[in-house]
Amino acid sequence: MAPNVSDSDRAAGTVWQRAKGRPQDTINDQNNNDACQSGSSSNHCDQGASVPPTPFRARIRWPDLFAQLFVHGGFLIGLYYLVTFQAKFYTYLWTLGLVWATGIGITAGAHRLWSHKSYKARWPLRLLLMFLFTICGQRDAYTWAHDHRVHHKYSETDADPHNAKRGFFFAHVGWVFLTPHPEVVAKRKAIDMSDLEADPIVMLQRRYYLPLFALLVIGLPVLVPWYWWGEQLAVAFWVCFTFRFTTTLNIAFFVNSVAHMFGNKPYDRSISPVENLAVAIAAMGEGWHNYHHVFPWDYKTSELGSYLFNVTTGFIDCFARLGWAYDRKSVPPEVVARRAAKCGDGTRFLSDEYAHQDAVWGYGDQDIPKEDVDAIVRTQC
Ligand SMILES: [Zn+2]
Ligand SMILES: [Zn+2]
């Protein structure tokens, strides 16, 4: 979804750091007072005026912008090959298969497992999810989960990396090539990532991300069609790398933009995440975003009992039968119904019998993050 924390991030963080985390207006006031106390006799000091805080202005990170221009330009070239039927039949199947299969690495892996700990997975499943996730090319799982935790905790504030209040374009892709707000940099440091630091699969992927990117994001998708069914190398590159990569990327971006803007709010009308069927279909169950922001620990990321619009839940349940996924957290239907009645916009259409009846998690579970419980208790609608 975006590059790693870059030098310019760090630069922005340095400015913030130098001030020991104080807000900018406090820094300016302090500088002002220091100047006055050191004997300055200007009217400025006499009047006790303070310098107005400098508003944050994002700068373009040119390498990231060029990367986005390249992959989106490459998407168009790949699309041209596809619509003019210059690609071989198996290349269509391979590309479609990769988009769907590797997307599970994002939804069941980086999102529901590594960002939210909404279920637990044994190492063979974690390895499989990491393999699929890496093929998507959306940064390493640690960085992805790190930003996603910040997004949930500080949703739609200056500290939200893709704050939808800054507009559709920023939430969709602008945040990827603009310097982050100093609040994002500061809050990233406050997020506990110790669970992922203890996961060797996560840390290995982070450590060897660049060679893995070359091998699994470009090499494997491009060389398989070239070697196995004689696809032209150029067609394989623009279709199976840039077209495929950018398709998956934009589906993920839709969750940050569309699913924060266009839809209904059955569970909390006071927040901007919404339920959006189109995003749910494209992102294999990640479009039920109003529910997800209210109950982020639910491994289903929705209330649906049906797998039709939530393929990822079907995938996790399937591996739960094998014993590779376990401790799936859910929310009791009566809690959901109560919350919807209290805070929703009245559009909850599911009756409780369609919600999962085998809920294994809810209030009183020791795994509930304390801040989540506090947030629910504090909720005023
Ligand atoms: Zn989430
Ligand atoms: Zn969100």
Explain what the structure shows.
The protein is mostly helical. It has one domain (60-377). The chain has helices at residues 7-18, 24-37, 43-46, 62-83, 89-115, 123-136, 141-153, 168-177, 182-190, 194-197, 200-207, 209-228, 233-256, 277-282, 289-294, 311-322, 333-343, 370-378, and strands at 120-121, 325-326. Strands 1-2 form a two-stranded antiparallel ribbon. Helix 6 (123-136) crosses helix 12. The radius of gyration is 23 Å and the shape is globular. Mean pLDDT is 84; it is low at 1-48 and 355-364.
Write the layout of secondary structure elements.
Elements: H1 7-18, H2 24-37, H3 43-46, H4 62-83, H5 89-115, E1 120-121, H6 123-136, H7 141-153, H8 168-177, H9 182-190, H10 194-197, H11 200-207, H12 209-228, H13 233-256, H14 277-282, H15 289-294, H16 311-322, E2 325-326, H17 333-343, H18 370-378
Antiparallel strand pairs: 1-2
Helix pairs in contact: 4-13, 5-6, 5-7, 5-13, 6-12, 12-13
The protein binds zinc ion (2 copies).
State the gist of this model.
InterPro entries: Acyl-CoA_DS (IPR015876), FA_desaturase_dom (IPR005804). With 381 residues, this protein is mostly helical. Helix content is 59%, strand content 1%.
Q: Round the mean pLDDT to the nearest integer and report it.
A: 84
Q: How would a crystallographer describe the biggest sheet?
A: 2 strands, antiparallel
Total domain modules: 1
Put simply, the count of helices is: 18
**CA-to-CA gap between the ends?**
33 Å
Strand content: under 5%
Bound molecules: zinc ion
Backbone CA Rg: 23 Å
By DSSP, the count of extended strands is 2
Structural class: mainly alpha
Question: Which blocks of ≥5 consecutive residues have pLDDT under 50?
Answer: 1-48, 355-364
User: What general form does the structure show?
Assistant: globular
Q: Give the proportion of residues in helices.
A: 55-70%
Output the strand order for the largest sheet.
1-2
